[in-house]
Amino acid sequence: MRMYDIIDKKKRGQELTEQEIQYVIEGYVKEEIPDYQVAAWLMAIFFHGLSDHELVKMTEYMAKSGDMVDLSKIQGIKVDKHSTGGVGDKTTLVIAPIVAACGGKVAKMSGRGLGFTGGTIDKLESIPGFRTAIDDKEFYDIVNRTGLAVIGQSGEIAPADKKLYALRDVTATVDSIPLIATSIMSKKLAAGSDKILLDVTVGSGAFMKSKKDAIILAQKMVAIGEGAGRETKAILTNMDVPLGIAVGNEIEVVEAIQTLQGKGPKDFQEICEVFAANMLMLAKIANEKEAHERVKEVIANGSALQKFAEMVKTQGGDPEYIYHADKFEPAKYHQDFIAPQDGWVVKMDTEICGKTAVVLGAGRETKDSAIDPKAGIYFYKKTGDKVKAGETVATLCASDKEKLKGGVEYLKNGYFFGDQQVDPMKNIIAEVTKDSVIDN
Predict the structure, then answer these.
(1) Which residue, 32, 201, 253, 269, could crosslink 264 as a Cys pair with Cβ 3.0–4.6 Å?
(2) Roughly how many angstroms between the first and final C-alpha of the chain, as a whole number?
(3) Which residues touch 373 (CB under 8 Å, ≥6 apart)?
(4) Among 156, 143, 166, 239, which Cα is nearest to 191's?
(5) What residues does the Pyrimidine nucleoside phosphorylase C-terminal domain cover (predicted)?
(6) Contact residues for 118 (Cβ-Cβ < 8 A; gap 6+)
(7) Strand runs labelled E in 226-305
(8) What is the spatial distance between Cα 151 and Cα 145, in angstroms, rounded to a whole number?
(9) Is pTM, for the whole model, over 0.85?
């Protein structure tokens, strides 16, 4: 078998065999195939795409290139939730405790933030004492005992993805939907859950800027999951505005606590309840009507918040911060962002909003950048909201005066004001299964 022939075959739009895909992935990881040949192959995929068969096989061999997590020691059906990324996306902090309080099992490995999207691990580590590095045995024991645990990725998960992504980054093939799908799903398959729920974000703060592209990506990821024997569903959500009010690390934890108490921002509360209910349905714990009722019940009776505190305690954190969120001390410096005119917020550039949080110190410019857990932004007004001149639209927080000043200047490019009211996008846009796309 020759790499030249495989490149030529894909260049002509022909479907590759499983053996050819295995040859490329394994050969590249072992450094037996040079970058320039794999780069040519990736560009051929960019122009011709991948069939469902190719998608599944490429993803499976990418997943098998490293450690495959075995969750069989955890009792019950394990359901994983994955988001394609966004600004203010703290859903795991709310959804996992709700599902656990309803009797589900969530054994989740999450990542750190890089660029303008925040990382769940960074948010959890802002809770004093919280440990995200846990060995396998303790991880399994915690989930069996409490129903949930969230840790950082351990071992070598999908090394083929890391190598391929680095090459895509310098060959203008990052924005290939099939390659995005294989990248995301290779890590999900390696993570070992039985069922997968995908949050595919859409809008200015997402990888997918249009609903059309988001549906295509969702369908491909669902096809991969189903083809690999994992029941998979995708839900498209709005990322044309930041999710919730808080964007940062500590302040997002506080907002998650408020949401578990039933006091969260309306958009965030809705998305968390919908995702938690869908995870219960995937886990065969409840039908649709029962799932939504149980989600609301565990929020109302406090058992979901108790599960979050229990997880924090078992992972070394101080649960008093969950029961008394005022223990989180605010950032040293704050500055309000003011509406320049009467009218409406007609548009937000959510990517700019996320990058503003990075400027303040809440995110990373590089993988080695230090994070300020107290830095962040409160977005009080979003697209479609009426404003008055001089009214506070957002409040920026930082531990450094110069970073605060830079953040205020940066956010000026994230808000657009006008005289005409606009309708904001729905929070839940569509649901995608292997058989259907259902608009909300």
Answers:
(1) 269
(2) 48
(3) 122, 125, 126, 248, 249, 250, 362
(4) 156
(5) 344-418
(6) 87, 88, 89, 90, 247, 248, 249, 252, 354, 357, 362, 363
(7) 231-238, 246-248
(8) 16
(9) yes
| One-character DSSP codes across 397-416 | EESSHHHHHHHHHHHTTTEE
Query: In this structure, how many other beta carbons lie within 10 angstroms of the beta carbon of residue 173?
Result: 20
Burial of 431 (0-12, 13-18, 19+ CB in 10 A): middle
Q: Identify the pLDDT of residue 434.
A: 81
Sign of CA dihedral 22, 28, 32, 36: positive
Give all domains of the chain, ordered by start, each with its CATH number.
3-48 (1.20.970.10), 79-157+168-177+188-324+429-435 (3.40.1030.10), 330-418 (3.90.1170.30)
Q: Which residues are the active-site residues?
A: 82, 161, 168, 183, 187
State the pLDDT confidence band at 153, using cuts at 50, 70 and 90: confident
Task: Give tens-digit pLDDT for 249-289.
Answer: 999 999 999 999 999 999 999 999 999 999 999 999 999 99
Q: Cα–Cα distances in Å, from 428 out to 13, 117, 123, 224, 234? A: 36, 19, 24, 23, 11
Question: Is residue 383 packed enough to be buried (19+ CB in 10 Å), middle (13-18) or exposed (0-12)?
Answer: buried
